[in-house]
Batch of 3 targets.
Target 1
Amino acid sequence: MIAGGDVLIHPPLIEQAARDARAAGGQGLDFGPMLAGLRSTVSRADLAICHLETPLAPARGPFTGFPRFAAPPQIATALSDVGFHSCSTASNHVLDQGEAGVRRTLDALDAAGLRHTGSARNRAEADRPNIIEVKGVPVAHLSYSYGFGGRLRPADKPWLANVVGERVFDEAAGLAARVPKWWFSACTGGGSTCMNRARASLPGLGNWRPVRRSM
């Protein structure tokens, strides 16, 4: 399994994608050359996961960078072509373009054949876990953010994007019977209190282990 960090499309990368498209005799944007160095590694993985940090814009833009990102949807096809299977989408930028941005992003990922988790177009989608069969082994890919950069989810649509909280443990506990092994990363920065809460919520998961990483 391979997991990649933030796919974060700043304006200079968009400009490079335009140059690469022109160099190949085409138009528009081509992110393939910038990702080409990953192909040999990512394509060999049984499961390759990426983190799409930003929402996607309409195909013709406008494209924007920090502080309110709207990245070209062509990046979704490029990620799929390199060999990624699924992308997490919950991040501090997921709501940069509001509900419309969430919908566009997930539509683009669907069109590219990429699974996704962390945001949703409706409650039913949010409640449906992203479980991927890998050589007969079910793998649950979950995604949560610590916040949304000061932006708020609509009060009547809390399912639009996942935030770290009780739902993390509830969802994990609900999947316990379906997914046999866990790499638990929900307690990043949460210390022993968070880890103790995880163990209390998942009493039957004797074979899971915590994974810590820096933010």
Target 2
Amino acid sequence: MVSEAELSEAIGLIGHAVENLGIGGVLKARVQDFRVEEISKKITLDPKGRFTAANITLTNWETNRFIKKLARACGISKNRIFFAGTKDKRAVTRQVFIIDAPQKKVASVELPDVEIEVIGRTHQKLGFGNHKGNRFTIIARGCCDEDGNALSDNEAMDIVSDIHKKMAQKLGDDNFPNWIGPQRFGAGQAVMAYLSMEGNEKDDVAAFRKNIRDNGISPEALEDIPSWLGFERDILRHLVNVPDDWVGAFRKLPNNLQLMTVHALQSVAFNRTIKARLDSGLSLCGSTRHQFDDYRRG
């Protein structure tokens, strides 16, 4: 089992901008404690547009799983649904989806913990990353001091204000090191499985992965795989049919998950760059290459 410290080290999530004990507390104690609202780019509507644009609110849904369910309900391929980004699963999220299906069909879809607000018709698709950003509303519960004594809301916010003030003094107004956490790597379990071949997994999943490691890929493994590991099943089936075609197996993942592996590597480099800048006293803003060239000359 990978410890939290080992996980942080592996993804470059190390160091602090300023010294402070923080406010303790727990994030995502409840699904409703973490809310994400996508800041979308303008969608140009046209009554004659081919696609249906909709704002969709999801509660505790993994994005790709929702896409599959929505596609099935609309009677279309999942490749005919377009969106700008994969959101957190354990959260309440709201984002724009572009769906290649009739407006009435989309509006009639009923799925648990899903709210669909049809915006209108459009000719415009969305690509991955084709949004301005995300707005987060986060609740931290059980905030406490270093001795475990509960903090009131005002006491916790005073500490937050002190951290903000110290960062402004050290880094400049409104600057802060925007480290990238484990969610960019596909959630904590995926990171731990990648790092140590084990993680916080259910017993049946751990046993399945161990069997693959010990005995290799085989048709029998398809019978043992837990039913809810859909992506793993697709990859495994491909390798059973086309042995050693690792690229083809990887491409069985949805495009956004393929991109996530690239983004994960970029995120490690980004986190380590921030740490290097802080350690070297360099500004967090501007060109990294320019800053380090200046540092060497100095």
Target 3
Amino acid sequence: MGEDFRKMFERGMNAETPEEEVTFFRKCLQLEPDNVYALNNLGIALYELGRFEEAEECINKALDLSPDYADAWYNKGILLSDAGRYEDSIRCFEKVVEQSDDAAAWNNMGFSYFQIGESRKAVECYKKAISIDDGHVTAWYNLGLAYYESGKYEEAAESFKKARDISESVDTLINLGVAYGKLRKYEEAMECFKRALQIEPTNSSANYNKIVLERLMGREG
């Protein structure tokens, strides 16, 4: 790796916009056309700009040159998942975790399984992600969604609670409230919806669920 390349690569890594990144990493590739790191980062920048075909082409070239390049497999998995090619994305994330237990890869693999209706496998992936990183809020949240979809409302509530405790968000509070509702824990559910509305007073989902719950509590006394 020459000095000119190194300086250009650093400029790409420190760029403030994807457009600038594309410029700098293309210049890197003019200096070293087969540099897998420049190809991978150019692919990421193109992906951020919505230029998916070009992004996939760059990442595929990086993988042709370096078939065990875990970061490129991960990025390809993200790209394919966003394109709705979930089964293909799963194979990419499998390539990542074959090399190292990566919580993000396990979480994204779980998301892809969930999208194709494989809730059981999704749960396994999310649990694996959490075993690696207990503070992975997205994995806890996704685990809650998978449990809820499977009708396991107690487990769903526990997962949403963990996500809330790590990083409180409106979506997590609403889903926790809905799970509590399924468990007939109406007071706890109401607290969730009210808290969500404190954070985002105009949130229509929180407001709707709060109104429905108020009516339900009124009927059941």
